[in-house]
Amino acid sequence: MTTEERIARLEGEISHMATKADIEAVRGEIAGVRGEIGNVRGEIGKLSATLTWRMILVASAIQALGIGALLQFLPRA
Question: Is the pTM above the cut of 0.85?
Answer without folding.
Answer: no
